[in-house]
Specification:
The protein is mostly helical. It is built from twelve helices and no strands. Helix content is 80%, strand content 0%. The model has no long low-confidence stretch (mean pLDDT 82).
Length: 273
């Protein structure tokens, strides 16, 4: 009995230490990059001879880096808007009880998440070459929309799983058109899922580099592609500074997603009560 009690008390502690060791192992490379962005010397070495913000200043003052940042924001915002609209409409259609071939359509819509990105990039390259969309921001937006929409479809579909379609019938019986019912009844309820999907689509577009390598030109170079070029050509601590900013952005993104998920859970519990 005493051995059993001792094991019961020690198991949570051992589990906590094991989990902490795994987390530390996973984030150690990230932690190592952040201090290097403040290095006073243009070398990736420890110990650092001094601290400086020169690499952040270089990032914000460099025309090349700022053009890449501008392109990334434009492409990510446009791709997110398109992905959110198309993905939400697709999820609403798939959630209808009378939707034919639902499993097949769902598999087709989420296939960009399953197919290796290099395969998608090659296919997009040849398709866009035939219609003149290579080396254009429009082509990059459309390509990123294709890989971002599945995230919206999945998150919105999961949210719609708990949606009561009787609300739509009630709105219709009261004289609301299908568009008004979706706009005033469905969208406010599934808003956390829509926003979560939009955030995933934005981060997917903002961080994507493989497709950008295939279809973007020098003037359409995005931030990840500029970082890739910097690693290959001139290894500079400016890359570490940019990586640190992206880490901060990703952390804020994860925190936002967690808040939205908790809000969705609270709404679900409220509707259940």
């Amino acid at each position: 009995m005493n051995h059993s009690l001792s094991f019961t008390r020690l198991f949570p502690i051992v589990l906590w230490f094991a989990g902490s060791a795994v987390v530390l192992f996973l984030i150690a490379p990230i932690i190592a990059i952040v201090p290097l962005s403040f290095n006073a010397e243009p070398f990736f070495t420890y110990p650092m001879p001094g601290l400086s913000l020169r690499w952040y200043e270089e990032f914000f003052s460099s025309e090349v880096w700022q053009l890449a940042l501008k392109n990334s924001i434009i492409v990510a915002v446009c791709a997110t808007l398109l992905s959110t609209v198309l993905g939400t409409l697709a999820a609403i259609g798939l959630s209808r009880p009378d939707c034919p071939s639902r499993a097949t359509l769902t598999a087709i819509l989420i296939s960009p998440m399953i197919v290796p990105v290099i395969v998608s990039a090659v296919g997009i390259y040849y398709a866009f070459a035939a219609i003149g969309l290579l080396n254009t921001l429009t082509g990059l937006v459309l390509a990123h929309t294709a890989i971002g929409a599945p995230f919206v479809v999945i998150t919105v579909t999961a949210t719609l799983a708990s949606f009561d379609h009787n609300l739509m019938r009630a709105a219709s019986s009261l004289g609301a058109t299908p568009f008004e019912a979706v706009l005033r009844i469905m969208l406010p309820i599934i808003a956390p899922g829509v926003v979560s999907g939009a955030l995933f689509a934005f981060v997917t577009s903002f961080d994507e580099v493989v497709i950008a390598l295939f279809i973007a030109g020098s003037e359409e170079r995005t931030l990840p592609r500029q970082m890739w070029s910097g690693v290959r050509e001139t290894l500079s601590p400016t890359i570490a500074a940019v990586a640190t900013l992206l880490i901060l952005f990703s952390t804020l993104f994860l925190a936002t997603v967690q808040c939205l998920q908790r809000r969705a859970e609270r709404q679900k519990l409220t509707r259940t009560d």
